[in-house]
Amino acid sequence: MLNPVIEQNNHTAKRIAIFASGAGSNAEKIIQHFRSHQIIEVALIVCNKQGAGVLQIAADNKIEVLLIEKEKFFRGNGYVDELKSAGIGFIVLAGFLWKIPEVLIGAYRNRIINIHPALLPKYGGKGMYGSKVHEAVIAAGEKESGITIHYVDEHYDNGDVIFQATCPVLSNDTPEALAHRIHQLEHNNFPQVVESCINKF
Ligand code: GAR
User: Fold this and answer.
1) What is the position in ligand 1's atom list of the atom closest to the CA of 124?
2) How far is the CA of 117 from the centre of ligand 1 (A)?
3) pLDDT band (50, 70, 90) for residue 200
4) Looking at the domain 115-201, which fold is it?
5) Mean pLDDT for the chain?
6) What is the reported pTM?
7) Set 116, 134, 150, 187: catalytic member
8) Which tens digits make up the pLDDT trace of 127-168?
C-alpha cells in the first residue's frame, strides 16, 4: 500500500488528488481551503473530460492536471502508477462521473471519498448524478434532501457514510434551485470533511 506521507522540502506533506468531470466548484473550494495549509496539498486534478470547467480552475491555481482516457482507466492499471509516482496519498471525488475501477480502490482502500448530492442510500446508484438526482428527489415529492460524503468501494454510492447534512426541498423547487441549495451545502462542508478524513491517517 502506498505510504501517503512523503518527505518534501524538509516537511511532511500529504498530497491529495481531486477527480472531477465538470464545473469543479467543489474542487475550487477544496483548493482554496488548503491553499496555505502546512501539510495538506492539492497536488493534482484528475479529469476525464476535455474542456471541463475544472481544468480552468486547475490552471488558475497552477495545479498539475492528469487528463485520463477510458480504455486505460478501465482496462489498464486505473492510473495507479501515475498517482503513486506523483506521491498522491488520498483521493477526493468531486463530481467525478466514472466508476472507480477495482485496481484503484484496492491501491487506495479507505483513502478515496466521494460527495453525492442526496441523502444516500436514497437517490444513488448508476446514472444518478447532478441534475438527474435533483429531478428524482422533486418528482418523488421529498420534503428534504441533502448531501452525503462517503468512502468509495467497488459499488456505486455504497461505501461507509462519513457525513450527511440536510436542506429543505421547497414546493416550487426546480432542479436548478435545488442544485443551488445543495451546492451551498457542499461548499460549506466538503473541505472540512476532507481535512478531517486526511487527518485520520
Ligand atoms: C456536485 O453536486 C456533486 O455532488 C455531484 O456533482 C456535482 C459537481 O459539481 N456528484 C454526483 O452527482 C456524483 N454522483 P461541481 O463540479 O460544481 O463540484
Assistant:
1) 14
2) 6
3) confident
4) Rossmann fold (3.40.50)
5) 93
6) 0.93
7) 116
8) 899 899 999 999 999 999 999 999 999 998 999 999 999 999
> Hey, which CATH number is domain 1-109, 3.90.1510.10, 3.60.120.10, 3.90.1170.20, 3.40.50.170?
3.40.50.170
User: Which residue's CA is minimally distant from atom 1 of ligand 1?
Assistant: 95
Domain with CATH 3.40.50.170 in the chain: 1-109, 115-201
Output the pLDDT for position 173: 97
Other Cβ atoms closer than 10 A to 20: 28
| Cα-to-centroid distance, 18 and ligand 1 (Å) | 12
Q: Where are the alpha helices (DSSP H) in the chain?
A: 25-34, 53-60, 70-75, 80-85, 102-107, 131-139, 175-199
Given the CA of residue 53, which atom of ligand 1 is nearest to it? 16
Is 33 a known active-site residue? no
Nearest in space to 22 (alpha carbons), one of 197, 194, 186: 186
pLDDT above 70 (res 12): no
Query: Residue 167 is placed in which grid cell?
Result: 436542506
Are 152 and 104 in contact by the 8 Å Cβ rule? The answer is no
Mutating to test ligand 1, I would choose from 116, 176, 189 the residue with most ligand atoms within 8 A of its C-beta, which is 116
